[in-house]
Amino acid sequence: MTVQLKPPGELRKLSSVLYEFLKTPDREGFAKIHHILYNNGKLRVYILLDPATSQEEKKTLVNTHQIIVEKESESLLRALVPVDELVSLAKETSVLSVRLPDRPVVQGRSKL
């Protein structure tokens, strides 16, 4: 049975699994066990933004954190984010939460 760690206050916007991923010394192994899409130092995540975030603020956020946006709606991004950017991304005031997508499977295999 895996015990999920709760992120400390400043990182509470990260899901518990993302926080565990950041804490583990074996990220590749953790990603395989938990079916996380992790490739070339990037994770696919959902970023929920404050609905009041302007397009300009969203563009700045994306550029600042080297985010590759795959899909977006008004306040939700599905994106590839460098692991090294997750902590600073979680600290952004316009970000409400960062979480992993439900295990997406394409023809039996997850891909980035």
Describe the overall structure.
The chain has helices at 16-23, 27-33, 55-64, 86-90, and strands spanning 38-39, 42-49, 68-72, 76-82, 95-99. Strands 1, 2, 3, 4 and 5 form a 5-stranded antiparallel sheet that branches. The chain is of the alpha+beta class and 112 residues long. The protein is globular and about 40 Å long. Strand 3 (68-72) and strand 4 form a beta hairpin.
Number of strands: 5
- The proportion of residues in beta strands is 15-25%
Q: Give the distance, in angstroms, between the N- and C-terminal Cα atoms.
A: 28 Å
Order of helices and strands: HHEEHEEHE
What is the SS-derived class?
A: alpha+beta
Query: What is the averaged pLDDT score?
Result: 87
Weakly predicted, low-confidence segments: 104-112
Helical fraction: 25-40%
Summarize the biggest pleated sheet: 5 strands, antiparallel
Whole-angstrom Rg: 14 Å
| Overall morphology | globular
Number of helices: 4
